[in-house]
Design goal:
Length: 91
C-alpha cells in the first residue's frame, strides 16, 4: 500500500453521487465494492501547480461534501490507485 499526504486548493466543483447497484450486472472481483454507497470527486491543485483528482467513499464523501468548497485549502491523507487518482482516507 502506498500512502500520500497532500496539501492544495480545491479547483473544481465537488461532485457527490450515490452508487447503489453500481456493480449489479458486472462481475465482482473484490467484495468491498458492495459496501460503498456514495462517492465524492474533485480536483486539487498542489503547490507545484500540478492537478490531481481525489475521491472518497461514504463517511469521507459526506464530510468532504459538507465541509469543503471550491477554492478552499485542504490537507488529506490517502492512497494512490492504479489510475493515479488519490483515495482519501482521512483529513
Amino acid at each position: 500500500m502506498n500512502i500520500v499526504i497532500i496539501c492544495g486548493k480545491i479547483v473544481s466543483k465537488i461532485d457527490f453521487e450515490f452508487i447503489y447497484n453500481r456493480y449489479k450486472n458486472s462481475e465482482i472481483k473484490h467484495k468491498e465494492k458492495y459496501t460503498h454507497t456514495s462517492i465524492v470527486k474533485c480536483k486539487v491543485k498542489l503547490l507545484n501547480n500540478s492537478i490531481v483528482e481525489i475521491y472518497g467513499y461514504d463517511e469521507i464523501a459526506d464530510y468532504l461534501y459538507r465541509n469543503f468548497k471550491e477554492n478552499q485549502i485542504i490537507t488529506i491523507e490517502g492512497k494512490i490507485d492504479s489510475e493515479m487518482k488519490i483515495e482519501v482516507k482521512r483529513f
